[in-house]
Each structure stands twice: as structure tokens, then as C-alpha cells.
Amino acid sequence: MLIDWFTVFAQILNFLILVGLLKRFLYGPIIRAMDEREARIAARQEEARLHIEAAERETRLYREKTRELEASRLEMMETARQEADARRRELLSRVREEVLNRRAAWFEALQQEKAAFLHDLRLHAGAKFLQISRQALGELAGAELERRILHVFLERFREMADTAGPDFPASLARSGSRVAVTSSFEIPEDLRSLIEDTFRSRIATECSFHYETSPDLLCGIELKTDGVRVAWSLQDYLGELEKELNLEFIKRPVFASMGEVEGTAVEDA
User: Fold this and answer.
1) CB–CB of 223/157 below 8 Å?
2) Residue 190, CB half-sphere, CA atoms under 13 Å: how many?
3) Do residues 266 and 99 lie in contact, with contact meaning Cβ atoms separated by under 8 Å?
4) Which of 253, 180, 185 is nearest to 220 (CA)?
5) pTM listed for this prediction
6) 169 near 202, Cβ under 8 Å?
7) Which of 93, 98, 102, 240 has its CA 20 to 30 A from that of 74?
8) CA-wise closest residue to 117 among 262, 260, 214, 254
9) Which residues pair with 222 in a beta bridge?
10) Contact between residue 173 and residue 226 where contact means Cβ atoms under 8 Å apart
11) How far apart (Å, rounded) are the C-alpha atoms in residues 57 and 231?
12) Do 194 and 154 touch, CB atoms closer than 8 A?
């Protein structure tokens, strides 16, 4: 069997031409299309990767900002709570101070009212006692009440001068001093002479006397010189009456409650 080499070479040539044509017009475009597709896929994958990384960064930033906002919210809440507590303490302090001031003012007004009442009561009681004493002593002793008061005062003054020692005259008066004699009644001339003689004989021979009246002594007499005072009046006896009245005041509900008010404090809410 003979081989037709011309046909063989022609087929080989045709095959090579076919391969060349396929490579140029079929395989090349396909490969390029595949390469381009792979490149687009790689680009899209890279873009997707970049988007994922950006999303992850945004997520981290969001979480960090969320934590910062939460911490800031907690800090603001704590600051607001502290400010509210400070404001509350300030308001409570102001309320407590106002309550204490009002309580002190009420107590002071009550004390003034009590003192005024006791003063008026003492004056009225002294006047009434003076009236009763005048009548009683006038009937029993047959002497005026003022003279009797003066004699009692002078008796006590002599006793003090005789028993107090040598320092008493020196502390009471110096030579040339001015002696103020205050009484609740007008002292007649004969009794003034008796006072001056008694003083000069026991205290100081050279001194001047000044007389004046004051109803505040409540039926009494006062001798004062250089800041030293010797007195006798119904105030000494009315002092005991005032103590008793004070005790009675304390027993009254309004005065007894004052101790509870003083112990009261504004409690923190």
C-alpha cells in the first residue's frame, strides 16, 4: 500500500492552519474573555474585601463610640446624681437654717413676751402688795410704810457696815464721792438727814448726796456710789415669786413643748 505523501502533508498543513485559525479566532478570544472575567472577579473580590474591611472598621468604630457613649452616659448620670445630691443637701441645709432661725425668733419672741408678762405681773403684784402693806402696817404698827422701809434699810446698812470689816467702807465710797439715793417714794427731810448721818458716821464723812425716785424699785430704796450698790426692796421677795411663776410657765404645754422644739432637727429626706 502506497502512502500519498502529498495528501498527508496537505492534511497536516490543513490541520496546522485550522489550529492556527482556532487559536487566533477562537481560543485567543475565549482565553482573553476568561482572563478578563477572572480579572473582573478578582477586582470584585478585592472590592468586596475592601468593603468588608471598611464595614469591619465601621463596626469597630461604632462599637467604640457605643462604649464611649455608654461611659459618657454613665459619667453624666453620676455627675447629675452628685449635683442633685449636692443641691438636695444645700436645700436641706437652707431649710434647716431657716427652721432654726424661725425657731430662734419664735423662742426669742416668746421669751420677750414671757419677760414682759412677768415684768407687768411683778409691777402689778408689787403695787398691790404695796397697797396691802401700807394698810396692814398702818393699822398694826401705826407708822407709814415708807418710814418703816427706810428704817429697815438703815438697820441692814448698819449691820453690813459693822460686820463687813474695814474693806467695806473703802469699797463703798471714797472721800468726796457722790452718793445716789434712789427710792420708790419721796424721802422726807428728816429721813434724808438720818441717811446722811448714818452714811457719814460709818463710811465717809465728806460726800454729797443726790436723791431721786423710781417706781421700778417696787417699794424699796437703793444707795449707790462708785459702782457699789446697797439696796432693799420688795424685789428681793418678788424674786421668789418670779421663780415660782417660771416653774408654772414651764409646766404649761406651750412652754413644755419648747424643749421638744429645741431638740427637733430637719431630717434628710
Assistant:
1) yes
2) 3
3) yes
4) 185
5) 0.39
6) yes
7) 93
8) 254
9) 182, 231
10) yes
11) 102
12) yes
Which residue shows C-alpha cell 479566532? 25
pLDDT tens column, 238-260: 666 667 766 665 665 545 444 44
- Say how far apart CA 21 and CA 19 lie, in whole Å: 5
All structural domains of the chain with their residue ranges: 113-256
Q: What is the pLDDT of residues 72-129, one digit of tens each?
A: 888 888 988 899 999 999 999 999 999 999 888 888 888 888 777 776 776 676 567 6
Q: Which residue has the cell 413676751?
A: 113
Residue 232 CB contacts under 8 Å (≥ 6 apart), including other chains:
149, 152, 153, 156, 220, 221
Grid cell locating 128: 398691790
Other residues' Cβ atoms within 10 Å of the Cβ of residue 255: 14
- Report the DSSP beta bridge partners of residue 210: 180
Rounded Cα gap, residues 241 and 247, in angstroms: 10
Give the cell for residue 129: 402688795
